[in-house]
Amino acid sequence: MIPNEKISYWEQKTFFNDIDYIIIGAGIVGYSTALSLRKLSPTAKILILERGNLPSGASSKNAGFACFGSATELYSDLQLNDEEEVWNTVKKRWDGLQNLRLLIGDDNLKFQNLGSWDLITEKEIELYERTVNLIPQFNSKIEEITGEENVYTIDDSVADKFGFKTIRTSIYNRLEGQIDTAAMNAEFYRQVINAGIQVLFGTEAIDVNSNENEAVVSTHFGEICAKSIAICTNGFAAQFINDEEILPARAQVIITKPIPNLHIHGTFHYDAGYFYFRNIDDRILFGGGRNLDIRGETTTEIITSTEIISHLKSLMKSVILPTTEFEIDHQWAGIMGVGSSKKPIVKKCTHSVFCGVRLGGMGVAIGSLVGKELAQLIIDDNNSH
Fold first, then answer.
1. Is 237 within 8 Å of 246 (Cβ atoms)?
2. What is the largest CA-CA distance in the chain?
3. What DSSP letter does each residue of 298-358 carry, written as one string?
4. Per-residue pLDDT for 11 more than 90?
5. 19 SS3 class
6. Which residues have CB under 8 Å from 98's CB, separation 6+?
């Protein structure tokens, strides 16, 4: 590192000198990449840079869905993408969830396998009917991936069971679950620190450059050099990568105050998956609505919008809790990374710069696996020189 009067000799020696690997982004992918690099290179000096005081993207701001694909989503994906690519992506999500559960532990994740419901209103009936015709095929494919039979089933009783309004029917997925995203990140952080990996919060990567010998990241501390840099900033990655389609996608969420005798449990996809809700701590967490303003929500600005929050509150009252009194306790936003393909990008960008980005709103499912793949790519590349 170039000497900088803002830091001491001791800080420079401890945190910035002789770095082997720099990881930009302290989220699921960044932490997973660091832990995988530690296993593959036990003596390496690894540094994680995070611009926020907490993870800036969606890793601890998402809804905590442990999902791999609702039936109507799979149908829609198959209309737009190659069949092999769709099922490979589903397999990666399933394998990623198993990897995450093994890495973090179900207790630390607060994992609950309560299932998920793909809710169908009158306007989705045509989509539902086309999807239902393919359920036997979907179940066969999912059995090949998970070893479980009859994962998708029709549930016509969901509205009566949970008291929803305007819901005609649903497709139930018995293998999907839910987690506590902040608890997950806390365990990631604990493991990273215990592995001797340095994490610097409040340290923004401004620019990244590389040559055949090293990679350099510019920060407000100055330039930091390493053998390799891994970009794990998902929806913010276009700042560093300009040869791929990586778009930010803001997701907004509201959560109620605790509701006595709440009888809703599980995860729910509504309006073709653009809205989603679940139970947590006797509350209802409800998010989505990006389809109301796709252009406006293609942003890295981490704030909520009046239009979408108002719509979420309205649907909470009219659809989810039509006969239950509730108060909204909190609202927030997070940034995902999306593109025309749902396939994540894991690749070498330049001489010594690599990336694992564009998780398509499925970071919980595939993030840890993307980090594992990215670390192996970096090690293999270094060993080839």
1. yes
2. 67
3. SS------HHHHHHHHHHIIIIISTTS---EEEEEEEEEEE-SS-S-EEEE-SSSEEEEE-
4. no
5. strand
6. none
What Rg value do the Cα atoms of the chain yield, rounded?
22
Say whether pLDDT at 262 is over 80. Answer: yes
Chain segment 147-156, per-residue pLDDT in tens: 999 999 999 9
Residues in contact with 20: Cβ distance below 8 Å, sequence separation at least 6, in sequence order: 41, 44, 45, 46, 226, 227, 228
242, pLDDT greater than 60: yes
Q: How far apart are CA 168 and CA 34, in angstroms?
A: 46
Average pLDDT over residues 111-135: 96
CATH number of the domain enclosing 293: 3.30.9.10
Q: Is the dihedral of CA 159, 261, 320, 290 positive or negative?
A: negative
Asked if residue 1 has pLDDT above 60, the reply is no
Statement to judge: residues 131 and 255 lie in one domain: yes
Backbone angles phi, psi at 377, to 5 degrees: -60, -45
CA distance 335 to 234: 8
The residues, ordered by sequence, that sit 6+ positions from 208 with a Cβ below 8 Å of its Cβ are 24, 215, 216, 217, 218, 229, 231, 240, 353
User: Cα 196 to the chain's mean position, in Å?
Assistant: 25
What is the H or E stretch that residue 149 is in? none
Q: Are residues 28 and 170 in the same domain?
A: no
Task: Decide if 43 contacts 384 (C-beta within 8 A).
Answer: no
Name the 3-class secondary structure at 73.
helix
How many C-beta neighbours within 10 Å does residue 263 have? 10
Residues whose CB falls within 8 Å of the CB of residue 162, separated by 6 or more in sequence, listed in order: 263, 264
The CA distance from 99 to 233, in Å, is: 20
Query: What is the amino acid identity at position 20?
Result: D
Which domain covers residue 320, as residue numbers? 114-178+246-338
Place of tokens 């390493």: 226
Give the chain's domain count.
Answer: 2
Question: pLDDT, tens digit, for every residue of 296-348?
Answer: 999 999 999 999 999 999 999 999 999 999 999 999 999 999 998 888 999 99
